[in-house]
Design a protein that fits this description.
Blueprint (H helix, E strand, L loop, with lengths): L2 H11 L3 H23 L1 H16 L1
């Protein structure tokens, strides 16, 4: 994402450029995780188990 897009999104959402960058980075991380699970279905079972353990803590 270029600086102009970052500035525009920050203005439109009444946030900072840093907030826009953080949201974009989080979206990319989530997309990557979903893609890994789709490409490796065996990891979906492991991921579900880890989520269950994390939510117990």
């Amino acid at each position: 994402m270029n600086d102009r897009d970052l500035d525009l999104l920050a203005t439109l959402t009444d946030t900072t450029v840093e907030d826009v960058q953080a949201a974009h980075k989080a979206d990319l991380a989530e997309w990557s995780r979903e893609r890994q699970l789709r490409d490796h279905p065996d990891l979906a079972v492991l991921d579900a188990d880890l989520d269950r353990v994390r939510h117990r803590s």
